Amino acid sequence: MSRRFRDVLGNFPTSVVAITTTDGEDRPHGMIVGTFTSVSLDPPLVSFLADRSSATLREIRAAGRFCAGALAGNQERLSRKLASGPAGQRFDGTNWRTSSLGNPVLDGVVAWVDCTIEQVVEIGDHLLVVGRVHDLRAESPATPLLFFRGGYGDYLSSAGPLLDSLVGWHEIGR
Ligand SMILES: Cc1cc2nc3c(=O)[nH]c(=O)nc-3n(C[C@H](O)[C@H](O)[C@H](O)COP(=O)(O)O)c2cc1C
Fold this sequence. Notes:
This protein has 174 residues and is an alpha+beta fold. The chain has a single domain, classed as Pnp Oxidase, Chain A, CATH 2.30.110. Helices cover 22% and strands 41% of the residues. It has helices at residues 2-9, 55-63, 76-84, 159-167, 169-172; strands at 14-15, 17-22, 28-33, 37-40, 45-51, 65-70, 96-98, 104-106, 111-123, 126-138, 145-148, 151-154. The strands form 3 sheets. The protein has a 7-stranded antiparallel beta sheet with strand order 3-2-6-9-10-5-4. A 3-stranded antiparallel beta sheet has the order 1-11-12, with no helix packed on it. The longest helix has 9 residues, at 55-63. The relative contact order is 0.20. The model has no long low-confidence stretch (mean pLDDT 94). Bound molecules: flavin mononucleotide. Flavin mononucleotide binds at residues 16, 31-35, 49-51, 54-57, 83-84, 87, 147.
């Protein structure tokens, strides 16, 4: 079941979102999730699912806050680092600033949402973390990084080819 579960569910594309926080000594912690989603507009709530064993989740629960950042198409390397790099080195070589809640906001993300933890619900082998939104911003016009069938990809708007044909790229080279 578990092989089939992974294979079939891998056909549902996801966003690639960095969940970040800091510890008591201002050290950054982060992980990648494909389970970030908006939950409620009033009050403004978002959520993600984290494996029970996640070390980053422990830091997030201790801090009581996190920032969710949608990675851009050119941030695959950063995603690999945050998903599987050694815990103390995941932010090496990456620039970030501190949000008003105290969470790392990674440079180059498409958008970010700064949250406090509203609720944590145990579901199967994961925990559903519900965050209350304190601040949020669409940061860059960059297209997002996506995950599909076990691999990364870049988003391509279906309007792109249409605009190209309207503008007539074939004409431009003449
Ligand atoms: C595209 C992608 C999506 C992922 N989605 C999740 C997720 O939704 N929840 C989760 O717990 N881990 C997810 N992971 C795995 C975590 O990022 C990874 O296990 C990370 O090392 C957790 O770090 P930690 O154990 O240090 O907390 C995902 C990884 C990738 C590459």
